[in-house]
Fold:
Amino acid sequence: EGNVADGQAKSASCAACHGATGKANNALYPNLAGQNAAYLALALHDYKKGGRSGGQAGIMQAFTSALSDQDISDLSAYYASQKP
Amino acid sequence: EGNVADGQAKSASCAACHGATGKANNALYPNLAGQNAAYLALALHDYKKGGRSGGQAGIMQAFTSALSDQDISDLSAYYASQKP
Structure:
């Protein structure tokens, strides 16, 4: 259901930390390239619900608060499509 | 500080879901191969502290509750060393 091209178009904020190619620019952040789309969507929904703490969870909750279910599907499809 | 060989020796429980080569056997679980060691350690400590909910967080808390700081460092080094 996620659209890779739409996900790419929505990924500018993500790329600041997770890299334009899904390789994080800081070892404290996860690489996303090639990660399973279903897991990425689950994690984004969890951050949005405030279900994660520690690390950058506060920033992730702020970013994900603006995301619709479709946004989450698109972003997940986009990062899953990248070469790890 | 993490030791790859020690991490491998401690990874049997992890492999049941995250795969012997760090490729998850279910798309709802994350691939770990090639993930940043610092992020993996952060996530494992967060699970251990009960800082994550949703998905398999309850199972992850149970597994990580038995891990020492050194175990977490070793497991993180091991999965980071795998080819994504």
Summary: DSSP finds five helices and no strands in chain A. Chain A touches chain B at residues 24, 27-31, 33-39, 42-43, 45-46, 49, 51-55, 57, 84 (CB under 8 Å). Chain A has one domain: 4-81. Residues 4-81 of chain A form a domain with the Cytochrome Bc1 Complex; Chain D, domain 2 fold (CATH 1.10.760.10).
